[in-house]
Request: fold
Amino acid sequence: MGEGTKQRKSATIVTVFGSSRPREGDAHYLLARELGAELASRGFTVCSGGYGGVMEAVSRGAKEAGGRTMGIVSAFFSSRANSWIDEVISTRSWQERLFALIERGAGYVVCPGGTGTLVELSVVWEMLNKRVMQTKPIVALGHFWQPIIERVREVETGHAAEWGEARERIIHHSGNAAEAADYLARMLTEHGRQPARPK
Reply:
């Protein structure tokens, strides 16, 4: 594989966050599996936390659609990466794992989840809001996170501020997997692989 191909693949990584709890047949598992297939069909490499639940489902969906997957794991957890991961990247702590997931993504999808997923959503949102990283698209899949996001926006948009969320909505809501994948493809195409910082 040539260097140009490696660069192209790294520029099209989408990081997916979500709960480790859903099992095959659960609604959230099925949604994540569909998401993986939709992302892979648009040429994205799917990156996740590498374990079970949503992480397994999105990786499985991507592999079944002929895509490539990455899993970022941590010695903090005792679990092993799921069998649908092509490339496993190991980190020492859960904090290192979190920032490795964020760093590798050209865009993000946040699926339903618990406290861990809430942390991931919050950190990405804050980094984009405060412009501590380049502009990247982020999608909340389904309506699970919408009440929390809208409540936080009451604070962010209720007064004049220089931060990003005060001027425009950073998190996009998608009702289904295909729409989420289409949005990411459109945004990454419009802004290029190295999106400019907001002025």
Remarks:
- Residues 72 and 101 are 7 Å apart (CA to CA).
- The chain has eight helices and seven strands.
